[in-house]
Amino acid sequence: MSASISLQRQITVAFLGPRGSYTAQVASNRFGDSVAYSDMPTIGDVIKAVLSRTCTYGVVPIENSTAGNVDATLDALVKATQDATEENKVQIRAEHYLPIHHCLLSNATNKADIKKVYSHSQSIAQTAQWFEANMKGVERIAVASNSAAAILASKEPGAAAICGEQCADMYGLTILERNIEDKKNNTTRFFILGDKHEPSTGSDKSLLYFTVDHRQPGSLVDALNVLKTHKINLTKIDSRPSGGSPWNYFFFIEFTGHVEDANVKAALAEMGQFCLGLLFWEVGRIRGLVLDYGTVSILMNK
């Protein structure tokens, strides 16, 4: 997804706002100044804007190297794909990795005056050790985004926010501490969402969502062994509660390959024997830290 794309037609990019969020930073890095931007209050709203074609692209966080998956994105992406028609689906078009360096911002000039701290739940998790060592006992409150936290902190005496330093000038806050993340290589992966299909390049990776019959011993192993049989490299696996019966799970896996590749087609067909349902996204071309994405399709076991 090159910068030249934005010159082909006027496009609108939805991101998790308000202005100053890390998601806004990624959107700006990827699309530049020649597009229109629309900030959304929640991750689900970003995905809905793309699904409804109100916006051409959307940017959402998916995973952090310290705190793990952004479950709200996974859940909203699955729901949007399940609810969509064959002609109207959210596509994962690209991913972007952003180093995350948190600051403590406040109207106060001294940390001793701070009684509460606002931030996104991921950022609270990413700075837990720092707060334990430096501001133990201060209340931390999760909100929709880091920039939303900055706005709250700008309006409340004795409040602070964990966010990027760009929020200081935007919202008239003082930077009390820099680089308060627990891991100095703290990095977040973002998805760029759209509605276009990308063909296979021979250097792709994909995301698959499925569940199995939990009453059947070895059902998950059977499903995953299909990838090995077809010489497909599994690169990531996660689980999420199914939302139905307690202790039943859906699984997310990432692997190298594209739905148009013969071995991937064969593997998906064979996995249908072991999986109760499959949702498939092309994750993209393996090109260092910035990847382009392709198609979304739904395969359901009959």
Automatic annotation (TrEMBL):
Coiled coil: none annotated. It catalyses: prephenate + H(+) = 3-phenylpyruvate + CO2 + H2O. Pfam families: ACT (PF01842), PDT (PF00800). GO terms for molecular function: prephenate dehydratase activity. GO terms for cellular component: cytoplasm. Its EC number is 4.2.1.51. Gene3D superfamilies: 3.30.70.260, Periplasmic binding protein-like II. It is an enzyme of class 4 (lyase). InterPro entries: ACT-like_dom_sf, ACT_dom, Chor_mutase/pphenate_deHydtase, Preph_deHydtase. This is prephenate dehydratase. Residues 208-288 form the ACT domain. Keywords: Amino-acid biosynthesis, Aromatic amino acid biosynthesis, Lyase, Phenylalanine biosynthesis.
